[in-house]
Amino acid sequence: MALKAVIFDMDGVLIDSEKFWTQAELDVFSSYGVQVTEDLAAQTKYMTTQEVTEFWYERFPWENFDASDLEHKVVTRVIEMIQAKDCTMSGVQEFIKNLKTKEYKIGLATNAPLRVAHVVLEKLQVRELFDTIHSSEFETQGKPHPAVYLTSAKNLGVSPEHCIAIEDSHSGLKAAKEAGMQTVIFTNNDESIDSNLADFKILDFNTVFLPVFGE
């Protein structure tokens, strides 16, 4: 199938920000008496913000629970760190620009809230290169459910079999595969990442040589 669109995950692909989410959970939920341990935090790594909030409340319930307020606090803290830290994946901006010169449609499909996605694309100065930006917050389920990818493909006007997704996790790869897309695992030179569901592999964006992209 001819490739017509490339859809990016965000955290762990465009920016190295997953540690920010862990820190935000620690900062916000600890103030409510939640014991945010490393083992428990690892379980929330690929959840939506709503799922994360419910995860901690179910284990450490507290009075006056307000999910929307907590989600807002977590997201705000993450945005503060994204804006303050050097977290851009090396070479990713040029990689995106190169894809655009080859006339691929470009999309973003993330479990993170849309307002985080806009901050990230502005930070990378690539917002105008994206044809669609979509978040699982507008779906009934986040990744590994394929909904966010199916909607992204629909927004691009491209059938899923003509799309390829760039992910950094098994959960994301599963979502893209179930949507009927080809998949690329971005490892950021971490060979421990599970790539069993990936059709292709990118170690880093500075040295991408994949025939599927016309390289």
Automatic annotation (TrEMBL):
Q: Which PANTHER family match?
A: 6-PHOSPHOGLUCONATE PHOSPHATASE, HEXITOL PHOSPHATASE B
What's this protein's name? HAD family hydrolase
| Hydrolase among keywords | yes
Sorted keywords for this record are: Carbohydrate metabolism, Hydrolase, Magnesium, Metal-binding
Family, per entry: Belongs to the HAD-like hydrolase superfamily. CbbY/CbbZ/Gph/YieH family.
Q: What's one GO MF term for it? A: metal ion binding
The UniProt entry, under Gene3D superfamilies, shows: HAD superfamily/HAD-like, Putative phosphatase, domain 2
Q: Which CDD domains match?
A: HAD_BPGM-like
Q: Does the keyword Magnesium apply?
A: yes
Q: Which organism is it from?
A: Chryseobacterium culicis
Q: Name one Pfam family in it.
A: Hydrolase
UniProt xrefs under InterPro entries: Beta-PGM-like, HAD-like_sf, HAD-SF_hydro_IA, HAD_sf, PGP-like_dom2
Entry cofactors: Mg(2+)
What SUPFAM superfamilies does the annotation carry?
Answer: HAD-like
